[in-house]
């Protein structure tokens, strides 16, 4: 079956892929394509696309020649990094420090995707946000909370890997009053740095992100689903992320009681 192609907006596309935990439970994964103001393209994250998706992207990008860069935004999303580079070898390859450590043979650019200098390089087209108060690359490889979030203001779209999640429940469950929800990744408690002030730093980061991106209308989240303005029959994304932070407050307060 072909991978889903979602045209989020005129200059933003999201591609949904398969990722099975233990080879059984498919939680999905994603990559997004952004058309820059200069007419070129950026690929956010890596996925091994189906032939149909490769053709679709090829029609947009002159067979990939107009893809300027691949930005790998999550340090633990590495399964498809090599294949994405092989598919679009002319695109400048960016990743986190962990990407470069795991794949030293690839032609990585010296700038890391978590670095402010990289964010400034693409500031005309994207805004980036890196969570504070949490381990960006956790020593526990099961903790995948942190990533570089990207906001495409032209389409008001947030691209998030793990950090922000959107769960769309089956229609039958909605009949019982259980709706869809935006939340922070459940590993927040394990991701928080073990020091005084870490919970405060995370809370302040989240509040800043919520305010700066208050106009967000679309959310593309890895492992879960997309929440698009045209299909959103509930609260705005701004309101949903505020609720998500409120739900996380008990975790933050518990951390403060222990570490200060």
Write a structural description.
The protein is α/β, with parallel strands linked by helices. It has one domain (5-259): Ribonuclease Z/Hydroxyacylglutathione hydrolase-like (Metallo-beta-lactamase, Chain A, 4-Layer Sandwich). It has helices at 51-61, 81-87, 97-102, 116-121, 171-174, 188-191, 198-212, 237-259; strands at 5-9, 12-17, 20-21, 25-26, 29-35, 41-44, 67-71, 92-95, 108-112, 127-129, 149-152, 157-160, 164-167, 181-184, 218-221, 226-227. The chain has a seven-stranded mixed beta sheet. α7 packs antiparallel against α8 (237-259). The longest helix has 23 residues, at 237-259. The N and C termini lie far apart (51 Å).
Index terms:
260 residues; Metallo-beta-lactamase, Chain A; globular
Mean pLDDT: 90
Uncertain runs are: 172-177
Contiguous helical run count: 8
Please estimate the helix content.
25-40%
Task: Report the sheet-strand fraction.
Answer: 25-35%
Oligomer: single chain
Report the CATH superfamily.
Answer: Ribonuclease Z/Hydroxyacylglutathione hydrolase-like
| Broad shape | globular
| CATH C-level class | Alpha Beta
For this structure, the CATH topology is: Metallo-beta-lactamase, Chain A
Short characterization:
The protein is α/β, with parallel strands linked by helices. The protein is 29% helix and 25% strand.
Fold topology:
Blueprint: E1 5-9, E2 12-17, E3 20-21, E4 25-26, E5 29-35, E6 41-44, H1 51-61, E7 67-71, H2 81-87, E8 92-95, H3 97-102, E9 108-112, H4 116-121, E10 127-129, E11 149-152, E12 157-160, E13 164-167, H5 171-174, E14 181-184, H6 188-191, H7 198-212, E15 218-221, E16 226-227, H8 237-259
Parallel strand pairs: 6-7, 7-8, 8-9, 12-15
Antiparallel strand pairs: 1-2, 2-5, 3-4, 5-6, 10-11, 11-12, 13-14, 15-16
Helix pairs in contact: 7-8
């Amino acid at each position: 079956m072909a991978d889903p192609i979602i045209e989020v907006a005129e200059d933003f596309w999201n591609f949904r892929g398969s990722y099975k935990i233990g080879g059984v439970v498919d939680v999905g994964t994603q990559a997004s394509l952004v058309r820059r103001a200069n007419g070129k393209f950026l690929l956010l994250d890596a996925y091994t696309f189906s032939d149909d998706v490769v053709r679709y992207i090829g029609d947009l990008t002159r067979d990939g020649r107009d893809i300027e860069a691949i930005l790998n935004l999550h340090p633990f999303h590495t399964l498809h990094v090599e294949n994405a580079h092989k598919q679009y070898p002319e695109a400048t390859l960016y990743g986190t420090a962990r990407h470069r450590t795991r794949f030293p043979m690839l032609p990585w650019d010296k700038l890391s995707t978590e670095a402010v200098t990289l964010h400034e390089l693409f500031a005309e087209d994207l805004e980036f946000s890196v969570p504070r108060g949490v381990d960006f690359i956790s020593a526990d490889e099961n903790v995948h909370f942190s990533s570089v979030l990207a906001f495409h203001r032209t389409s008001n779209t947030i691209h998030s890997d793990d950090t922000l999640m959107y769960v769309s429940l089956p229609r039958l469950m909605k009949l019982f009053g259980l709706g869809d929800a935006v939340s922070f990744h459940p590993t927040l408690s394990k991701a928080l740095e073990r020091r005084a002030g870490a919970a405060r730093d995370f809370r302040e980061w989240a509040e800043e992100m919520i305010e700066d991106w208050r106009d967000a209308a679309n959310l593309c989240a890895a492992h879960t689903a997309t929440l698009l303005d045209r299909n959103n029959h509930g609260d705005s994304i701004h309101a949903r992320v505020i609720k998500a932070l409120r739900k996380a407050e008990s975790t933050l307060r518990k951390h403060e009681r222990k570490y200060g």
